[in-house]
Amino acid sequence: MRTRILKPFALASLVALSSCSTQSGGDLTKSQTATKTGAMAQPSFHTKGSPTGKPTGPLKPSEYWWNPQISPSGPVVVLVSLPLQTASVYRNGILIGRSSVSTGTKGHETPSGVFTILEKKQTHYSSTYDDAPMPNMQRLTWEGIAMHSGNLPGYAASHGCIRMPYDFSTLLFSITARGATVVIGNSKNQPYLAANPGLMLAPKDFNTGMLKPLAKGEYDWNPKRSTKGPITIMVSSADQSIYVYRNGQPIGRAAVQVKGRLGDHVFTLLDGVSGGSSPFAPGRAARRWMSVSGSGSSPHELASKVNFSPDFAQKVDDLLSPGATVVVTDRPATRSSNELNILTN
């Protein structure tokens, strides 16, 4: 599967004041107590946000996609792509949201690297720029870099912060916690391949061998990469592959033979068994599943269209517990280039 990498994928004065400073003692050095409780109202000059049904492809300024039920539990990681001016949100290694953003302009560039959320404030005002409002602020550095609601003109325009549509910033704020990981990537330095985010999260120790094509019946299995946490499984007919994540880390993958299109589905494992035997794992009882989205009530209904190693299926079955998620898609989850293999959109 050889495809092309995506290349680095008025209210002017008032808007400028709503962005962040990269200087020490910048606009995020202190917060002011809000006069209201709960969420901070959207400022008039901030972008509200426009939901879109597309988990992949280009995003127009203000557009975002949000589907957290695809992966209902697990660690949250946010990848910010400076070339694409997008933010992608992963939970347990699977994409659950993405949005257009506006990052730092020339002379006030947003730094690339791996950050953690140091502080969260739904109501925050800049101490540098005339109390400019910054709803849903999530601080990344003590020197003035954060994610927050802001104006999105369609290009990099902030003083270093990551501006998001107001609606998306509210949704993201609701699922993150202090200590969560935020990775910012550019075209030259791509930690976790953040400059080209895709349907799955690339692990810290990513290498091209992790995406080496597998022959029929072959599989990789390394559950020691992550020994506990929720399981999420993705089946991609485009990649002819099945991927298994636990607690945000890939622990296995296998070659899958697919007949025709599978459609887009999300299933969650329930407690107990449904009677009969599993069509995937020989000698095992069929599991009970609930359809979260798409047609069909169970992954078993797709059994006639997919075929993969029964040994791999049994290994996966050993780890399944109620709440495990299966994502089925006809979209590609991986892309390759002449330089390296990457997870991309």
Description:
- Strand 3 (76-81) and strand 4 (86-91) form a beta hairpin.
- The protein is built from three helices and 22 strands.
- The strands form five sheets. The protein has a seven-stranded mixed beta sheet, covered by helices on one side.
- The model is unreliable at 1-37 and 336-345 (pLDDT under 50).
- It is 8% helix and 30% strand.
- It has helices at 12-17, 166-175, 310-319; strands spanning 50-51, 63-66, 76-81, 86-91, 94-100, 113-116, 119-121, 137-139, 146-149, 162-164, 181-185, 219-221, 231-236, 241-246, 249-255, 257-258, 265-277, 285-293, 306-307, 325-329, 335-336, 341-342.
- The protein has 345 residues and is mainly beta.
- Order of SSEs, N→C? HEEEEEEEEEEHEEEEEEEEEHEEE
Structural class: mainly beta
- Quote the distance from N terminus to C terminus: 14 Å
Main sheet record? 7 strands, mixed
Helical coverage, percent range: under 10%
Itemize the secondary structure elements and their pairings:
Layout: H1 12-17, E1 50-51, E2 63-66, E3 76-81, E4 86-91, E5 94-100, E6 113-116, E7 119-121, E8 137-139, E9 146-149, E10 162-164, H2 166-175, E11 181-185, E12 219-221, E13 231-236, E14 241-246, E15 249-255, E16 257-258, E17 265-277, E18 285-293, E19 306-307, H3 310-319, E20 325-329, E21 335-336, E22 341-342
Parallel strand pairs: 1-2, 3-11, 9-10, 13-20
Antiparallel strand pairs: 2-5, 3-4, 4-5, 6-11, 7-8, 8-9, 12-15, 13-14, 14-15, 16-19, 17-18, 17-20, 21-22
